[in-house]
TrEMBL record:
Family: Belongs to the cysteine-rich repeat secretory protein family.
InterPro entries per the UniProt record, alphabetical: CRR_secretory_protein, GNK2, GNK2_sf
Name used for this protein in its record: Gnk2-homologous domain-containing protein
Limits of the Gnk2-homologous domain: 27-129, 135-240
Keywords: Glycoprotein, Repeat, Secreted, Signal
Biological source species: Vigna mungo
Length: 276
């Protein structure tokens, strides 16, 4: 059990790239206990909650990376998990089973909770939330480098807008990842993702609400991510996502030797995970 968690933790580092280099332990990305008071859960509710947490953990092993359901009639619990679009099967299940153990600890004695980890989110509540967007609260994380001019900001904005459009209007995947050549030597990478219980239109609204906030919080940085309970956007000059056809996702080499060392370290541990 401990080993699985350790593996997962290090696997996350691989993809967290530049941001994690500053804060290595930041696997957990946020939680929200949704304003509910802390009081002992009824025995019936607790039993349904335990069942739905176990369901999420096992369903994630065979699903396409997301699902939602409800359990119970008189005291129903609504539950949902959603792995990032580039993560499925084993890694999705690692994340969801980890989150299903952690969520009740992050939100003890609460009827509802949302927890975010880098690769998945998990949510439960006594009220149905499927298909509804949440644009508050939001969380964000920033890289260490600033942009050098407004032109750079505008190009980033254009790229993010095009990803939102590709995820919601040009496809119904509710998720898109891509990159562009920023200059002859630099690339930029991006990802947008919505909970896959949302409609295209709800997804677009959620992403646009986040995008509005990036003007204030984020876009002066070269690398940032922002997310709410139902969608996320990430932008970076480092490759941070997994390409589905590749068995490993080595980030491109970069000139800061400290980071290269970190990546090697992580890749070795990742290999150990596979062996286990
Ligand atoms: C929690 O309460 C605040 C203030 O009443 C509200 O703005 C916010 O949307 C609520 N959050 C959730 C997740 O319901
Ligand atoms: C989602 O969960 C429901 C309820 O357990 C199940 O019937 C369904 O097959 C699952 N869907 C996928 C795509 O795994
Ligand atoms: C869900 O739980 C909250 C907090 O205990 C309660 O105020 C609310 O009425 C419950 N909703 C339903 C549909 O039971
Ligand atoms: C980035 O910008 C912030 C605020 O404008 C400033 O405080 C910080 O020193 C800058 N960092 C670098 C590395 O230039
Ligand atoms: C981006 O740059 C790579 C080499 O760095 C090149 O192979 C590729 O064709 C470029 N793509 C575009 C769209 O210019
Ligand atoms: C990646 O895999 C998909 C199917 O899973 C396939 O359609 C696609 O052509 C592959 N792409 C590359 C670059 O091999």
């Amino acid at each position: 059990m401990v080993v699985t968690q350790t593996c997962f933790g290090f696997f996350l580092l691989l993809s967290w790239g530049t941001i994690v280099t500053k804060a290595k332990t930041q696997i957990f990305m946020g939680s929200n206990c949704q304003n509910t008071s802390q009081e002992p859960l009824s025995i019936a509710y607790q039993a349904n909650l335990d069942k739905i947490l176990a369901w999420m953990s096992s369903d994630a092993a065979t699903s396409k990376g997301y699902n939602h359901t409800s359990i119970g009639i008189n005291t129903p619990v609504y539950g949902q998990y959603d792995c990032r679009g580039d993560v499925a099967e084993n890694f999705c299940q690692f994340c969801v089973s980890f989150a299903s153990r952690e969520a009740p600890k992050r939100c003890p004695n609460r009827v509802s909770a949302i927890v975010w980890y880098e690769y998945c989110m998990l949510r439960y509540s006594n009220e149905s939330f499927f298909g509804k967007i949440l644009t508050h609260p939001t969380w964000h994380a920033l890289g260490t480098k600033n942009v050098s001019n407004m032109e750079e900001v505008r190009r980033g904005e254009g790229f993010v807008k095009s990803m939102i459009s590709k995820a919601t209007q040009e496809s119904n995947h509710l998720y898109y990842l891509g990159s562009f050549n920023f200059s002859s030597t630099q690339k930029r990478f991006g990802m947008v993702h919505c909970g896959r219980d949302l409609s295209n239109e709800a997804c677009r609204q959620c992403l646009e609400a986040l995008f509005e906030q990036t003007h204030k919080c984020c876009e002066q940085n070269i690398g940032w991510s922002i997310w709410s309970g139902t969608c996320m956007i990430r932008y970076d000059d480092q490759m941070f996502y997994r390409l589905s056809n590749q068995t490993s996702s080595l980030p491109p080499s970069n000139d800061e030797t400290g980071e290269s060392k970190d990546y090697k370290f992580v890749i070795i541990l990742f290999f150990i995970c596979i062996v286990l």
